[in-house]
Design brief:
Number of helices: 3
Radius of gyration: 15 Å
Number of strands: 0
Distance between the termini: 50 Å
Low-confidence stretches: none
Largest sheet: none
Number of domains: 1
Helix content: over 70%
Order of helices and strands: HHH
Mean pLDDT: 92
Shape: elongated
Structural class: mainly alpha
Length: 94
């Protein structure tokens, strides 16, 4: 595989994590407008993307291939937990 092919392969592997991170952070800021007023959108989305990407890599290691529905379900749960922690958990601590 040439470098350009490897780049596109990695880009397509992490695209679901980036997409769900951006969409989930935007919806969280929209739905919990008052509660998340002090939390900036960019760090919120980065936490969601990082959690989702970690689950994608763990799913690849655990199942030996990507694209399993169990991995995508775990990615949604991890994204929600990262959003909760970044939006509500960290901001409430001293």
């Amino acid at each position: 595989m040439n470098p350009l092919g490897a780049f596109w392969h990695l880009t397509n592997f992490f695209a679901p994590a980036v997409g769900i991170g951006l969409i989930a952070a935007s919806l969280a800021k929209l739905l919990w407008r008052r509660e998340l007023k002090t939390v900036r959108w960019w760090p919120l989305s980065l936490w969601a993307m990082a959690g989702s990407a970690a689950v994608l890599v763990a799913g690849l290691v655990a199942f030996g291939r990507d694209g399993k529905m169990a991995t995508y379900g775990a990615m949604v749960i991890a994204c929600a937990l990262c959003l909760w922690w970044a939006g509500f958990g960290r901001s409430r601590q001293g």
